[in-house]
Amino acid sequence: MDESRSRIPLIHPADLIIEAPRALAPWVRARDWALTALVWLLYLWLISDVFVFSWRLFRWLFQGQPEPEQLSRAIALLGTLGSYVVVIVINAALLLAWAIYNQSRFRGHERRRQARPVSLEDLSRMYGFPTPVIAEWQAAPILVARLGDDGGLLDIEIRARPSAEAAPTKS
User: Fold this and answer.
1) pLDDT tens-digit map of 93-133
2) Quick check: helix, strand or coil at residue 97?
3) 3-27 confidence digits (pLDDT tens)
4) Whole-number Cα distances in Å, 40 to 18, 35, 163
5) What are phi and psi of 27, to 5 degrees?
6) What are the C-alpha distances in Å from 41 to residues 19, 52, 55?
7) Parallel/antiparallel/unpaired status of strands 153-159 and 142-147
8) Calpha distance 75→97 (Å, rounded)
9) Bridge partners of residue 158, in order along the sequence
């Protein structure tokens, strides 16, 4: 417990696409760029009516062009959006009122209880080994567990901590 981990990294930063984009094959990078551009073009095409309407509205307001025929439909849409805003504001007010009620109602009352610590007797009952043996396991620096076919604990081997000279060195 007081020693650092096994020094076997689970995540290799050099393998992350964000950290090493040049490590990808050129065709993979070209494919990603092409797909990204395609999706952006599709998105802009889907919202192109917004741009057309905005341009016609700009010309009507500032250049004296005739009123766009879609203006009455856009104004009707604003009424619908206004009702959505009312529903959102009411929902937010209800949630805020509920949070304030809970803060005032339960202030100072901790309803969550911490689980009691697991004792040696609990571990002894769970694994079927005597309490002194489990205490010895807890004091050991390295444990190797042997499990049965059913997943139950068969045996524990206690190993000594390797010396500093025997530890592998990083190159």
Assistant:
1) 999 999 999 888 888 777 777 888 888 899 888 888 899 98
2) helix
3) 555 555 555 555 555 556 667 788 9
4) 21, 9, 59
5) -70, -30
6) 28, 16, 19
7) antiparallel
8) 33
9) 143
pTM, two decimal places: 0.35
Backbone angles phi, psi at 158, to 5 degrees: -95, 125
Helix%, strand%, coil% for the chain, nearest 5: 55, 10, 35
> What are the domain boundaries of the chain?
120-159
What is the DSSP-derived secondary structure letter of residue 157?
E
Q: Which residue has the tokens 């494919």?
A: 31
Q: How far apart are CA 27 and CA 23, in angstroms?
A: 12
Scan for tokens 């005032």, then name that residue.
104
What end-to-end distance do the CA atoms of the chain give, in Å? 26
Structure tokens at 33: 């760029």
Distance CA 154, CA 159 (A): 17
